[in-house]
């Protein structure tokens, strides 16, 4: 019998530099933080939040999205290796993609322009570790 999964609970990306990656995701998406280690955390809090590995976990809709800073410096993402191909975030529609493309341009973040894939639109770009990101909007 198949496992009756309801959907995705969370995604966490391994990054090389949490300061750089967090600045990128905070600036581009502005997701609210669900979990992070307080600067003044006591031993009990550090023990309870061990799963952060020095990173951060954001709330995204009904799920969680995290950054885990354990990759060696200089490592780069490659979607042609086993593992993640890309991560896609949903937006409401084409107008939001147009606004997102403008926001990426304002931040000098390279992107592939908005693509019509027949029934939907997408906008592709990369994070500081070269992880392939996408914004996806249903067509109208």
What does the secondary structure layout of this molecule look like, with pairings?
Elements: E1 10-14, H1 18-28, E2 33-36, H2 43-48, E3 56-60, E4 63-68, E5 87-90, H3 94-106, E6 111-116, E7 120-126, E8 132-138
Parallel strand pairs: 1-4, 5-8
Antiparallel strand pairs: 2-3, 3-4, 6-7, 7-8
Summarize this entry quickly.
By secondary structure, this protein is α/β, with parallel strands linked by helices.
Radius of gyration: 17 Å
Strand adjacency order, main sheet? 1-4-3-2
Distance between the termini: 37 Å
CATH fold-level assignment of the largest domain: Signal recognition particle alu RNA binding heterodimer, srp9/1
Count of distinct strands: 8
Characterize the main sheet.
4 strands, mixed
Count of folded domains: 2
Structural class: alpha/beta
Question: Explain this structure to me?
Answer:
By secondary structure, the protein is of the alpha/beta class. The chain has 2 domains: 1-74, Signal recognition particle alu RNA binding heterodimer, srp9/1 (2-Layer Sandwich), CATH 3.30.720; 85-140, 2,3-Dihydroxybiphenyl 1,2-Dioxygenase, domain 1 (Roll). 21% of the residues lie in helices and 31% in strands. It has 3 helices and 8 strands, in the order E-H-E-H-E-E-E-H-E-E-E. The chain has helices spanning 18-28, 43-48, 94-106; strands spanning 10-14, 33-36, 56-60, 63-68, 87-90, 111-116, 120-126, 132-138. It has a 4-stranded mixed beta sheet. The chain starts with 9 loop residues before the first strand and ends with a strand.
């Amino acid at each position: 019998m198949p496992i009756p999964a309801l959907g995705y609970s969370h995604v966490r990306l391994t990054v090389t530099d949490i300061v750089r990656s967090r600045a990128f995701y905070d600036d581009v998406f502005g997701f609210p933080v669900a979990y992070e280690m307080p600067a003044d955390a006591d031993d009990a809090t550090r023990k309870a939040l061990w799963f952060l590995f020095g990173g951060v976990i954001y709330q995204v809709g009904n799920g969680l999205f995290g950054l885990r800073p354990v990759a060696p410096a200089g490592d780069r993402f490659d979607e042609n290796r086993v593992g993640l191909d890309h991560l896609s975030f949903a937006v409401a529609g084409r107008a939001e993609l147009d606004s997102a493309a403008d926001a990426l341009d304002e931040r000098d973040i390279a992107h592939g322009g908005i693509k019509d894939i027949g029934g939907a639109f997408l906008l592709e770009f990369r994070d500081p570790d070269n992880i392939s990101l996408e914004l996806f909007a249903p067509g109208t």
